[in-house]
Amino acid sequence: MPTLANDLNYSQKIGALKASGIRIFDNKVSEIPGIVKLTLGEPDMNTPEHVKQAAIKSIEDNDSHYSKQQGKLRLRKTISKFLEKETGNYYNPEKEIIVTVGATEGINAVLFSICDPGDKVLIPTPVFSLYWPVASLAGVSYSLINTSQDKFKLTPQRLEQVIQEEGDKVKAVVLNYPTNPTGVEYTEEEIKALAEVIKKHHLYVVTDEIYSSLTYGIKHYSIARELPERAIYISGFSKSHAMTGYRIGYVAGPAGIMEQVTKVHGLMVTTTTDSSQAAAIEAYENGLSDPDEYRKIYEKRRDYLKAALTKLGFDVVDAKGAFYIFAKIPEKYGKDDMKFALDLAFKAKVGVTPGSAFGPGGEGYVRLSYASSDENLHTAVERITEFFEEGKNND
């Protein structure tokens, strides 16, 4: 086993980055025998059969050469059609859409493209713990806006306040909604009010709408409808079509910025995998209704888990999208969500993610993913109930 030479070191910038708290905790509890994990946002459904067959056919047809750097034109055209319905905007497939290696690569390419050192991005939290490490990697500063006092939503008043405090350094606002980890969704009126503030201050809005197909009792409203000239829209197929392993996402925005995003994308990955693109083409050309069945299943699970946890005394955030429950931990733990999650893992064999992994405002909460089987959810509820009834949480 090679040992690094004594006269070598590594990037201090990279060394200062922390690994994902979600993954760290998941790794810590995954080896517990018999544990039921509700930790990761990984759909338990299989990719639709017709989508899988499209990927297989791509391989059998020797579709194994570099596609265009922006992605296959046919896929960009079908994404354009989807986005016209989703956002009301026509995005030119030739100049305003690129296909990325998941939404994660898209977020990296965008933040590297829009900001210079000294610029600042605003990130409402709690939120998926990717955006601020990527900002750091890009050499950009950031401010995390704790939304816990506003029902886990960024209000226009709070946004205005932070912009006034930060001054001219602010370049962009990052939105993720429906939000991971809270499941909170914004109304059309709330999005319009935020758009007014963003426009007033001449900012970009980087909008990650990967869960837009999974909303319950509310229709998703993209901020790109309000700010097509300022919005950089990021999404993908991982959640809508249970395709996390295919690593296929996309970015859309005005041609003036997408030219730069395409450069960074090319330097990062060259292009995306042919067979994954073939699957994505099939998903959007013939499978736009596939998420409908998933949505019904997820909504039923959400209702079951929310009712069960509420009965046990948990204060549960009103989730109208994605596939997560964000619940306040028992008072005896204070805000120590890590201790509660570890107790639950080792004493009840149920894995949940500490809310502090998602930034300010997440402390004192845990995230439970209901992208798991009904059997796992029922087992988890039984074990959590036993955990409370037998006083294991009082050890």
Automatic annotation (TrEMBL):
UniProt KW Transferase keyword: yes
Gene Ontology molecular function terms on file: pyridoxal phosphate binding; transaminase activity
Any one biological process term the GO annotation gives: amino acid metabolic process
Keywords: Aminotransferase, Pyridoxal phosphate, Transferase
Domain of life assignment: Bacteria
Aminotransferase class I/classII large domain span: 35-384
InterPro entries: Aminotransferase_I/II_large, AspAT/PAT-like, NHTrfase_class1_PyrdxlP-BS, PyrdxlP-dep_Trfase, PyrdxlP-dep_Trfase_major, PyrdxlP-dep_Trfase_small
Family annotation (Pfam families): Aminotran_1_2
Enzyme class: transferase
Cofactor(s) in the UniProt record: pyridoxal 5'-phosphate
Hydrolase as UniProt keyword: no
UniProt family annotation: Belongs to the class-I pyridoxal-phosphate-dependent aminotransferase family.
Protein name: Aminotransferase
Organism of derivation: Lactobacillus kalixensis DSM 16043
